[in-house]
Amino acid sequence: MELQQTAALVTGAASGMGRATARALAGAGAAVALLDVNASGVETVAREIGGYPIACDLADDDQAERAIAAAIDALGPLRVIVTCAGIGRMEPLVGPVAVSFATLTETVRINLLGTLQVVQLAVADLVSRPRVDAGERGVIVMVASGAAFDGPMASSAYTASKGGIVSMTLALARELGDHGIRVNTVSPGAFDTGMIVNAPAEILAAIPAMTPLPKRMGRPEEFAALVLHICANRFLNGSVIRLDGANRMPYFSTAALDADQSV
């Protein structure tokens, strides 16, 4: 997909991987709509890159519909859609910091159903648009997590939400391929973003040793670079790409969580 003068949508664009991706797409010549629940944050990033900011809570269906419609009205067909919006919390089912079922539901609602709704709303418009670039209409990049495969402690709702994204990647690619739309998912490991600070200190300290190479957390710019490659590589479709330095999360006792009341 040629990015020059192409409209793109990035959710979760106020910080972390979403912000880095919005910057990278704008740097490649795309007109970028930035969506985030953090209104001031998304406006700041939009000013920096000349993008179009939209404040939206993906847990609210009406807000999501209005946000996608506003992006299309402002920029035209959204040919690149990157769904970085999500929440990551340690949510134990039992114990001194046990989570409510409402909170578990919210995690799935935002991470999984919010992703699916954004895709559906954007694609509903895109399938009626002319094909460009070797018959393509667009590219979707969804964001899962290494948790979808490794199942870290106190993460049943988060793991389920990200596992759902992994599971629907091929199904969406098969359905939307006939419409000229490619669908891929990036599954990041531990990245140096605001979300990771919620993890217990024991886990954070262990990440370098658990990562074969490089022995550090990922950087948002590395995620953004992969998004640009997915856009450019027309044979890349229906794939889930682990971006984690070969890190595989080991078992940690829930005692680590119980001892860290900050989470």
Element layout with pairings:
Blueprint (H helix, E strand, L loop, with lengths): L6 E5 L4 H12 L3 E6 L2 H11 L2 E4 L5 H15 L2 E6 L17 H26 L11 E6 L3 H4 L5 H22 L3 E8 L12 H10 L9 H13 L7 E4 L11 H4 L5
Parallel strand pairs: 1-2, 1-4, 2-3, 4-5, 5-6, 6-7
The major β-sheet equals: 7 strands, parallel
Kindly identify the CATH topology: Rossmann fold
Second-tier CATH architecture: 3-Layer(aba) Sandwich
Q: Helix coverage percent of residues?
A: 40-55%
By CATH's scheme, which homologous superfamily applies?
A: NAD(P)-binding Rossmann-like Domain
CATH class: Alpha Beta
Terminal Cα separation, in Å?
A: 41 Å
Shape: globular
Strand content: 5-15%
Would you report the number of β strands? 7
Low-confidence stretches: none
Helix- and strand-based class? Answer: alpha/beta
Query: Can you give the mean pLDDT?
Result: 93
What oligomeric assembly is this protein in? single chain
Order of helices and strands: EHEHEHEHEHHEHHEH
Read across the widest sheet, the strand sequence of neighbours is: 3-2-1-4-5-6-7
What is the alpha-carbon Rg in Å?
Answer: 18 Å
Write a brief caption for the model:
With 263 residues, the chain is of the alpha/beta class. It is 44% helix and 15% strand. The chain has a 7-stranded parallel sheet, sandwiched between helices.
Overview of this protein structure:
By secondary structure, the chain is α/β, with parallel strands linked by helices. It has one domain (7-258): 3-Layer(aba) Sandwich (Rossmann fold), CATH 3.40.50.720. It contains nine helices and seven strands, in the order E-H-E-H-E-H-E-H-E-H-H-E-H-H-E-H. It has helices at residues 16-27, 39-49, 61-75, 101-126, 147-150, 156-177, 201-210, 220-232, 255-258, and strands at residues 7-11, 31-36, 52-55, 78-83, 138-143, 181-188, 240-243. A seven-stranded parallel sheet has the order 3-2-1-4-5-6-7, with helices on both faces. Strand 1, helix 1 (16-27) and strand 2 (31-36) form a beta-alpha-beta unit. Helix 1 (16-27) packs parallel to helix 2, helix 3 packs parallel to helix 4 (101-126) and helix 4 (101-126) packs parallel to helix 6 (156-177). The chain is globular and about 55 Å long. 44% of the residues are buried. The mean pLDDT is 93.
